[in-house]
Amino acid sequence: MILERGIDILCENDKEIERLIGFRKEETEKLLYRYLKEIELFNSAYGLVGTDDLKEIIVKHILDSLAPLGIISGLLDEETPEIADAGSGAGFPGIPLAIAAPRWNFTLIERMGRRAGFLYNTCAIMASCGITGIKVEEIELEKTAKERFSLITFRALKGMNAKLLKTILNACKSKGVIAAYKGRLETIKEEMSALEKQCVNWEAIPYKVPFLDEERHLLVIRKSSE
């Protein structure tokens, strides 16, 4: 089974991922399959992901969401951090991360009503299974409270630009962190070169997704305490 083997590979290759989910791997897999069931049920009606192929959803969405879990854990200095998943859509990466790290608190921010409805329903199902640290806000990121989150992550938002960067940084606490799922390093450098005056404290950390032969990086931007 590709999901089980993928999680095994992540645990084998990253000691922090093994520490977080190794002792509850069976429960994690069960909850991820429950989440996948909801995606399969509502995907065609809500346009959640651009494929109906289960293997592709597992690799390009579930395992990709989980692959930098160890990196993200290392960015946090709180046991129960407040994390936002901006433009959450179908819940990637927020829901897989919440399943893998149930002590963390996640706010899924999604402005589109149908997708927010999917998230409300899925989070209710997760809560009934014991994953209670997820909530949904049907709102634009610009309208969320300032200096609220320890870390903000996203996968599907457009390329980084000055307006988007300012919006996300405003929602971060002092010394908060942005963790953006990205692809090629060359593309990241092009995006960030235009933001040198606005942001100098960034790095692109490579990570590997099991069964995916594509370049992947976590773009980490740290908010200045000044």
Task: Describe this protein with a few key phrases.
single chain, about 230 residues, alpha/beta, Rossmann fold, globular
CATH topology annotation? Rossmann fold
Query: What is the straight-line distance between the termini?
Result: 49 Å
Mean pLDDT across residues: 93
Helix content: 40-55%
Largest sheet: 7 strands, mixed
What proportion of the residues form beta strands (DSSP E)? Answer: 15-25%
Can you walk me through this structure?
- By secondary structure, the protein is of the alpha/beta class.
- It has a single domain (2-222), classed as Rossmann fold.
- The chain is built from 9 helices and 7 strands; from the N terminus they run αααααβαβαββαβαββ.
- It has helices spanning 2-13, 15-21, 25-46, 54-66, 69-75, 94-100, 113-128, 162-171, 185-193; strands spanning 82-86, 105-109, 134-137, 149-154, 172-182, 202-206, 217-222.
- Strands 3-2-1-4-5-7-6 form a 7-stranded mixed beta sheet.
- α1 packs across α2 (15-21) and α1 (2-13) packs parallel to α4 (54-66).
- It starts with a helix and ends with a strand.
- The model has no long low-confidence stretch (mean pLDDT 93).
Give a brief outline of the structure.
This protein has 226 residues and is α/β, with parallel strands linked by helices. Helix content is 46%, strand content 19%.
